[in-house]
Design goal:
Layout (H helix, E strand, L loop, with lengths): L1 H22 L8 H4 L5 H21 L23 E3 L2 E13 L4 E12 L4
Antiparallel strand pairs: 1-2, 2-3
Helix pairs in contact: 1-3
C-alpha cells in the first residue's frame, strides 16, 4: 500500500511539472500575476504532491515492528546401533571373533575381541 502511494505521488508530481511547463508563457501584459508573487494552480499542485511524498516517506520510515521470536532449531541427538557406546562423537562397537583350529588329535579355540568405530546416525 505504501509503495503504491509513493508511486502515485511521484507520477502526479511528474505530470504536474509537465503541465506547468506547458502553461508557461513569455512576459508581457499577462505576466503581472506571477511576478507579484501570486500562487498558481501548478504551484499549489506541486506543493500538495511534495507534501504527499513527504508524508509517505515519514510513515514508511517509522519501523517500530515488534521483534520476531527466534525459535532455536533443536539439535539432533546422535545415536549408535545396538548397545555400542558413543564416545567423543564416535560410536565404538565391539565384536568377538572365535577361531577354532585343530588337527586329528588336538583342537584349540581362540576368542579375539575386535573393536571398530563408525559415525553415529542423526
Amino acid at each position: 500500500m505504501r509503495k503504491s502511494l509513493i508511486g502515485l505521488a511521484v507520477a502526479t508530481a511528474v505530470a504536474s511539472v509537465s503541465v506547468q511547463a506547458q502553461q508557461e508563457q513569455t512576459g508581457g501584459a499577462g505576466a503581472g500575476g506571477g511576478a507579484l508573487g501570486g500562487l498558481t494552480a501548478g504551484t499549489i499542485a506541486a506543493g500538495a504532491v511534495g507534501a504527499t511524498i513527504l508524508g509517505a516517506v515519514v510513515s514508511n520510515s517509522n519501523g517500530d515492528a515488534p521483534e520476531r521470536p527466534v525459535t532455536p532449531t533443536p539439535t539432533p541427538t546422535p545415536t549408535c546401533e545396538g548397545d555400542d557406546d558413543l564416545v567423543d562423537g564416535v560410536c565404538i562397537g565391539t565384536t568377538i571373533t572365535v577361531t577354532t583350529t585343530g588337527t586329528a588329535t588336538s583342537t584349540s579355540t581362540i576368542t579375539v575381541p575386535v573393536t571398530y568405530t563408525y559415525s553415529p546416525s542423526i
